Amino acid sequence: EIVLTQSPGTLSLSPGERATLSCRASQSVSSSYLAWYQQKPGQAPRLLIYGASSRATGIPDRFSGSGSGTDFTLTISRLEPEDFAVYYCQQYGRGVTFGPGTKVDIK
Amino acid sequence: EVQLVESGGVVVQPGGSLRLSCAASGFTFDDYTMHWVRQAPGKGLEWVSLISWDGGSTYYADSVKGRFTISRDNSKNSLYLQMNSLRTEDTALYYCAKGGGAVAGYFDYWGQGTLVTVSS
Predict the structure, then answer these.
(1) pLDDT tens digits for A16-34?
(2) Taking CA atoms, what residue in B is nearest to A37?
(3) Residue A59 C-alpha, separation from nearest chain B C-alpha, in angstroms
(4) In DSSP terms, which residues pair with A37 in a beta bridge?
């Protein structure tokens, strides 16, 4: 099983700042089959990024994904108030596993 | 507009059984792989099972293999999860999710979830 580790566990930032979230895999993720989701309290997760760097439909361009192999990054260029949430990475290259999540909260 | 609406979540005793349903609309249901994903209270996401577009292939997480069965009825645009031999650790919000793209291993649309509580 591919284990995903996300860091940091919590990121405290102010609106307008840049957020950089990391996702590291225990083995190489084939074909960059890595996705990112946003989840707000009481809501279902929302797909942000798939294929490591492709934005899902309707996702603002302040969200971007990068990386390959075992190291992946989600960047939010300028945090909007609605971006404070928990973010999960997920790999689908070998089975399906999720990372434990990174909480982005207001500083 | 894609909609996924889960139902069937209740409180059930350990060892009991339950069947979850997911009604899909807004897309051509029988073109897509479908998944169940769960989230224990206050915890992260855990993939549970998937079924191919025609029901011919199914896969399960090790934690539910042999106890849960995924199925679909394309004539009714519906997805199901039969849950047997339930354990307290199965307590979670169960989401129905549509597989995205050709690979179908990520989830581009999610329902709002149905809560399963396993408790005596």
Answers:
(1) 999 999 999 999 998 889 9
(2) B107
(3) 12
(4) A47, A88
